[in-house]
Amino acid sequence: MSFSQSLSHCQFYYVDKFIIIASGNEIVLYSYHIDNIKSDLKRQITNSKYKQIKTIKMSEFQNISAFSAVNSFYSYIGLCCGSNKSIAVIDFNVGSVITQKSNTHERCIHTIEQFTEPNNGSSSDHQYNLFLTSAASDCIKLWDLRTREFST
């Protein structure tokens, strides 16, 4: 793996089946396999590998400033914030942006967080449609994906 620009985000995705890396204005999806050979004779030979599955170029963004995708259950949705103060909703099944909202904060968004299920499992389905964003010297905003063009 080599990237021409610095990495802004890296995480496991789709219940640890993939790795997502954000670099510059691109999101790259990788599959991977880690070889777990326990033999002392074969441990020098690794069969671990990775493969680039998909690259999504965010042409409206100069850089990706924040990214989030749920890893605790099977979801095709990812959320991406750009240097132009926009939020994009990405469908990894299709490999493109579903919807985008511009000028969401006064400054560039530096944090985006989606709901993660608590350990006791006491959550409702509608909570997975909510996410938070924040920007330096700006407020924290709560968003709902169920509304048309999602709103605060």
Outline the fold blueprint:
Blueprint lengths: L6 E7 L4 E6 L2 E8 L15 E9 L6 E6 L7 E6 L4 E5 L4 E6 L7 E6 L15 E6 L4 E5 L8
Antiparallel strand pairs: 1-2, 2-3, 3-4, 5-6, 6-7, 7-8, 9-10, 10-11
Protein name: WD repeat-containing protein 27
InterPro entries: WD40/YVTN_repeat-like_dom_sf (IPR015943), WD40_repeat_dom_sf (IPR036322), WDR27 (IPR042411)
Give start-end ranges of low-pLDDT stretches.
none
User: What proportion strand?
Assistant: over 45%
What is the structural class?
A: mainly beta
Helix content: under 10%
- How do the strands line up in the largest sheet? 1-2-3-4
Order of helices and strands, N to C?
A: EEEEEEEEEEE
Distance between the termini: 38 Å
Which whole number gives the mean pLDDT? 88
Per CATH, the superfamily is: YVTN repeat-like/Quinoprotein amine dehydrogenase
Radius of gyration over alpha carbons?
A: 17 Å
- The shape is globular
Number of separate strands: 11
CATH class: Mainly Beta
InterPro entries: WD40/YVTN_repeat-like_dom_sf, WD40_repeat_dom_sf, WDR27
Protein name: WD repeat-containing protein 27
Explain the overall architecture.
- With 152 residues, the chain is mainly β.
- The chain has a 4-stranded antiparallel beta sheet, with no helix packed on it. Strands 5-6-7-8 form a 4-stranded antiparallel beta sheet, with no helix packed on it.
- The chain has one domain: YVTN repeat-like/Quinoprotein amine dehydrogenase (Methylamine Dehydrogenase, Chain H, 7 Propeller).
- The mean pLDDT is 88.
- The chain has no helices and 11 strands.
- This is WD repeat-containing protein 27.
